[in-house]
Design brief:
Blueprint (H helix, E strand, L loop, with lengths): L3 E5 L15 E7 L5 E4 L5 E4 L4 E3 L1 H7 L1
Antiparallel strand pairs: 1-2, 1-5, 2-3, 3-4
């Protein structure tokens, strides 16, 4: 599995409509219904709209 660190856009909401805390997340997958699964750790994960994901600055620096 290719796990990648991602950030989220401001005011991102999860699949239930609640705001998601601004932090760096690990991208896990996009499920069958089109939601992106992102996790802070093994206990805290959220389904969000993939359009609200941004590459984290750590990964962007590696690409340069």
């Amino acid at each position: 599995m290719n796990l990648k660190t991602v950030a989220i856009k401001p005011e991102t909401r999860n699949h239930k409509g609640f705001f998601v805390q601004d932090a760096d997340y690990t991208f896990v997958e996009i499920d069958k219904s089109g939601w992106a699964l992102i996790c802070v750790d093994d206990a805290v994960c959220h389904y969000v709209d993939p359009d609200n994901l941004m590459a984290a600055e750590i990964d962007a620096a590696k690409a340069v």
